[in-house]
Each structure stands twice: as C-alpha cells, then as structure tokens.
Design brief:
The structure holds two protein chains of two kinds. Chain A is mostly beta strands. Chain A contains no helices and eleven strands. In chain A, the strands form two sheets. In chain A, strands 2, 4, 5, 6, 9, 10 and 11 form a seven-stranded mixed sheet that branches. Chain A has a four-stranded antiparallel sheet with strand order 1-3-8-7, with no helix packed on it. In chain B, β7 and β8 form a beta hairpin. Chain B is globular and about 45 Å long. Classes of the chains: A mainly beta, B mainly beta.
Chain lengths: ~110, ~120
C-alpha cells in the first residue's frame, strides 16, 4: 500500500530538548516536504527536498532542520524546541501532480 | 508569487442542503488546484484536483469543483450535505517553480452540518 508514515504520532517534550520526527514514503517520490498546521493559518511549509541531499527552506524554516540521506526518508529535526513550535506537523511526498500526506505528528513543547 | 483565499472560515449548512465552499487564487502561471479534507484528529485526504484538463472536476463523496479562470475561482460544491461531511476543507494551489511544484494552502474552511 502506498503511504507516508510519521513517527511519533504524539510527542510531549520540554523546551530545549532535541527531538526528531521521522517521515518515510514507499512511493519512490523525489519530492518531500514538511508542514506545520496551526489554527486559522492552514498548512505552512517548513522545508522541502527535491531529491537526495537536496533540501531548501520553505515559508517558516526557523528553528527546524532536515536531512535527506535516502530517497524514502525525510526527518524533521528540532535542535532546541520552544513552546511556539507546539503544532501539528505533516510530512508529504509527491509526484509531479499530487501530494500524499502522512497522518500527522502532534507536538507539545512545554 | 501565488496565493489562495478561502473566503469563509466557517460554513454551516443543514443536512440535505447544498454545500458551497469558496476559494479564490492568484498565480502568475497556470495553476494546478486541489481540495483536501481533514476530519477531526485525522490527516489530509485528497478530495479532487484540477490539472488543466476538464474545468469541472468530480471528486470523492459527491463533491465537485469548477475551475473558472476569468474569476480565478475554484469553489467546492456538493448538492446535498451529509453529517459525515463535517470537517475542515483546504483549497491548495500548486505552480511550477524551479523544477518542482510550489504549493500554497488556504487557511481552511470548517464545515458544520446541522441535523
């Protein structure tokens, strides 16, 4: 089954404690991206990757890092999380036309 | 640059009545347009997409949308609302940009269906 998976699905952490949210896709897509969803703001793109070792900033990249060492994986890294990064995060991978979204990761930073 | 405006943050309809969720876009290039639905505490599901073929697009669950270039609109409609349609809906525009597709989401419209 074609899918995008994210882990963990829920995470509570404290300010400054580094964390990583993993994302994996099995559709051999070159393009992957991360979004955060906040009430009233829709989804905003954090980072995207056009292929292995090719990443770039989206609209709200501050406080985040990514890596793309393999085609299927695109982890999101918060080196020093802060409360304003409390949000719902979605990973997506896409072909030339359509994005496929993961189930989301709900993060609470205390 | 591109943008998407969902004209209503909340829409309330009675079960069995028509649904209209409005979306306007701006884009320097011919866009692809999408509608996604998000049920409470769920992920995003693709409802339908327009990619320069037929201007009237039919999607899942009885939804459809019409691309109107002259009005820069892509409104989502359904003839008869069902309780299970209660969710948040996102209009999305996608345009080519430097070898990939630049995607912009609208801020969402919450649909309430009253029994």
């Amino acid at each position: 089954e074609a899918q995008v998976t994210q882990n963990p699905r829920y995470l509570i952490t404290v300010t400054g404690k580094k964390l990583t949210v993993t994302c994996s896709q099995n559709m051999n897509h070159e393009y992957m991206s991360w979004y955060r969803q906040d009430p009233g703001l829709g989804l905003r793109q954090i980072y995207y990757s056009m292929n292995v070792e090719v990443t770039d900033k989206g609209d709200v990249p501050e406080g985040y890092k990514v890596s793309r060492k393999e085609k299927r994986n695109f982890p999101l890294i918060l080196e020093s999380p802060s409360p304003n990064q409390t949000s719902l995060y979605f990973c997506a991978s896409s072909n030339s036309e359509t994005q496929y979204f993961g189930p989301g990761t709900r993060l609470l930073v205390l | 640059a591109q943008s998407v405006t969902q004209l209503d943050s909340h829409v309330s309809v009675s079960e069995g009545t028509p649904v209209l969720l409005r979306c306007n876009y701006s884009s320097s290039y011919s866009p692809s347009l999408f509608w996604y639905v998000q049920h409470p505490n769920k992920g995003l599901q693709l409802l339908l997409k327009y990619t320069s073929a037929a201007t009237l697009v039919k999607g899942i669950n009885g939804f459809e949308a019409e691309f109107k270039k002259s009005e820069t609109s892509f409104h989502l409609t359904k003839p008869s609302a069902h309780m299970s349609d209660a969710a948040e809906y996102f209009c999305v525009v996608s345009v080519p940009s430097g070898g990939y597709q630049k995607v912009t989401f609208g801020t969402g419209t919450k649909l309430q269906v009253i029994p």
